[in-house]
Amino acid sequence: MPCEQLRRSTFRFVNDFEVDRLDLITLEPATAGIKDVINHAQNFTHPANKQPLPRLQHVTIAELLDGKRPKMPLTFLPYIAAEKLDQPPEHDELPYET
Asked: What is the dihedral angle through the alpha carbons of 58, 61, 64, 66, rounded to the nearest 10 degrees?
């Protein structure tokens, strides 16, 4: 896919489908057109914790292998963690019949 076509497709996809976030992971560095689309994309505010995040991000495979990671929303646990048991309960039989 030619670079200009990729730039237009990305821009249309984000705008037409009202995408909250999109991470572009590619083999090659971003072209000037893709950088322009990323720079003009607005931020996204995560609804659970109000964390502002970039709507579009780009990272290459080489950058991922070097340890770079896209900005992601913080983990928000919607549940209360159960207390840990000292020892697991013992069962002599399976809880169901075969």
From this structure: -120
Task: Find out whether 20 and 42 touch, Cβ atoms under 8 Å.
Answer: no
pTM equals 0.58
Q: Could you give the dihedral angle defined by the CA atoms of residues 12, 17, 20 and 14, in that order, rounded to the nearest 10 degrees?
A: 0
Going by their DSSP bridges, the two strands 56-60 and 22-26 should be labelled as parallel
Q: Give me the average pLDDT of each 10-residue run along the chain (98 residues).
A: 64 66 85 84 81 88 92 68 72 64
- Number of Cβ within 10 Å of residue 95's Cβ equals 5
Quickly count: other Cβ atoms within 10 Å of residue 44's Cβ: 17
Spatial distance between the Cα atoms of 16 and 66, rounded to a whole number of angstroms: 34
The count of residues in the chain is 98
